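Shipment paperwork, digital attachment
Item: protein structure file
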Amino acid sequence: MRGLTSALPAPGPDAVDRPGGLSHRAASIISRARILKHALAAAVATALLSTPASASDKLTFDERVEVVRGLMAEFATVKAPLPRSKKPLPFESTGSYDKKHWEEAGKELGPAARVGDLIQITKVTIESDKILLEINGGIKGGRKWYDRLEVGMGNRTTPIGQSGTPLAGTAIALLFHKPLEGMKASSIKKMLAPVLDFEKRSATELYSESLPPEIQKAIKEKRAEVGMNREQVLLALGHPVRKTRETKEGAELEDWIYGQAPGRILFVVFEGNKVVKTKESYAGLGAEAAAPLPPK
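Attachment content:
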């Protein structure tokens, strides 16, 4: 059976704040650039919509998309030592796990996160009898996520991160030992409660709540709207697959492109720091594809 996967660039475990105060590393990062509070919200690649499910699946396509949407880019506070591991750490859907096995993995490769640290889910893969969750970019995670961010005006941007420290990432395999049945992202978070707490408020949430209601609604629904800025689009959709630039009637435009063929492709057009148009089209789906939505 074919799995369902979505991924984001990997963040650092101190990328956002948590109740009770910031860690020293997070405080340093956020003081250098407030944009770190804004970037990397939940996003599901639009290409997922073209991934078929097996006829024998009990987990419906809509349920699969909801699970991925509900887990992608979510932050959680670590409640038990989380080790790095070459293979995904096994965790039973009943909420139990082999602590000794996790300890041995930690002795071999060290910790990915300690109790109280914030981590982020950067990839979700749904298989026939398990769900794989990549944490902080996984075991092969490279630079800090903020090393890939740039700030600036117009065509002039400057990297805000200077760290070359390897990212501490790992992965968890949530095991069901049977074909997956109907479930929601909220139920998966409850299963993971012994090791991860998803209830803590992040800086991303706090920033979102300061925005106008219509922008909050668009971000929650993972939509880009005319008038949003780049940081708000990152919150809603994450990083684009690619970007293109053009000059049209004297205006410099930049397209952020989400999705790949075959499937739905979204174009978000910026003039300066503001979205001036969005349009959606379909590629490689043949006659069965729905008609593309009109440009906004």
